Amino acid sequence: MPDSENPATPVTFPPAFLWGAATSAYQIEGAVREDGRTPSIWDTFSHTPGKTAGGETGDIAVDHYHRYRDDVALMAELGLGAYRFSISWSRVQPTGRGPAVQKGLDFYRRLVDELLAKNIKPAVTLYHWDLPQDLEDAGGWPERDTAYRFAEYAQIVGEALGDRVEQWITLNEPWCSAFLGYASGVHAPGRTDPAASLRAAHHLNLAHGLGASALRSVMPARNTVAVSLNSSVVRPLSQDPADLSAARRIDDLANGVFHGPMLHGSYPESLYVATAGLTDWDYVLDGDLTLINQPLDALGLNYYTPALVSAADASAKAPRADGHGASDHSPWPAADDVAFHQTPGDRTEMGWTIDPTGLHELIMRYTREAPGLPLYITENGAAYDDKIDSDGRVHDPERVAYLHGHLSAVRRAIADGADVRGYYLWSLMDNFEWSYGYGKRFGAVYVDYATLERTPKTSAHWYGRAARTGALPEVEAV
């Protein structure tokens, strides 16, 4: 039937729409000491007592490094048309500088060949949070040199895979790298320095620009270069001017700090003003904004839940309900007087409110923000407490409903004029969920962590049917 919120919305997707799933290297690969790989910041962080749930690490993860052929066969069986994965920087360039380790590159060559043999389009993300520890020891993302090291790494990978991989993404969610890694400390490397987090944000932007240029210097012109942003849908609690101001400040820190220079070649002036007590931004050198503002072939949007904010009551000392982990330190520099509120509605196992209208709103914002730029939903999904039943099946009707709602929002946005060309479900399979360890299951495929056996959930079969037909099955159809 047509979309219930808009009966005129077509039920089918455009024929060329790309149906994919996504993962990241540290969350699935394992084999952390094989074939020359050295520690990344996530190896160090997860092995630091108290940093992850139960002290769990990605040492084995779901052993994709050894099981990739079976995993690709499973993708083909489900009917996926694309697979977005990330490269482990320290598997390719163990110290973050110098020549590549060919055994590391060979793994990704084999993976790409396997995907192409199954008619699955590979999409490569160069950086999904796992900085080589050697580069962190030299200062990490707050140091300018890290951006130049990233460009060197991008060129190496582009030369190795650019003849067979057409879709490229420089960075995944640089907001998390900068602000969860260097401000709140809930992600690797676990630092809590708000001024350093802003420097990190700028150098991640610079890395994106330099990396995009490096990729284009060694790849065929047909290849596309994008970035994946976890841009927030920031809503004020009320129309009170103080709440509107609070929402603007969080929007600058969540969105403008990245899309400003990447899409428009400038940071928001309001961001400079709000953070003046922390930094004078003297690390933004002449020419940086031009380097960052490289033409993009597409923009990736990652969406999970909206944010609801207000001006803070100075007398209140409530926990920060921003959905980004528990810490005494905020990931929002110079915004301690902004309060976050739990939005109403059903929630996932992460405690995140389920709101497909936010995805539609986000898509339409960037349709206006960057007219003519193709969009991909490069992450969207939900964690639930999935269990395998006595018949060996995993029923996850909540995830099916979640996917139906959010894919309906994508289809509605396309009907409203948005150029959305694909959707990557997060995640292909259960995996190491960062500081939550193995306690949060986002996968469409269930993984028994004791045996590493894979079992497609109801949602995997439902999504596979959508991918094969280009239309959304009814929620009860599988």
TrEMBL record:
One of its GO terms (biological process) is cellulose catabolic process. GO terms for molecular function: beta-glucosidase activity. Substrate binds at Q27, H128, N172, Y304, W426, E433, W434. The active site is at E173 (proton donor), E379 (nucleophile). PROSITE patterns: GLYCOSYL_HYDROL_F1_1, GLYCOSYL_HYDROL_F1_2. Keywords: Carbohydrate metabolism, Cellulose degradation, Glycosidase, Hydrolase, Polysaccharide degradation. Signal peptide: none annotated. It comes from the Bacteria. This is Beta-glucosidase. The lineage of its organism: Bacteria, Bacillati, Actinomycetota, Actinomycetes, Kitasatosporales.
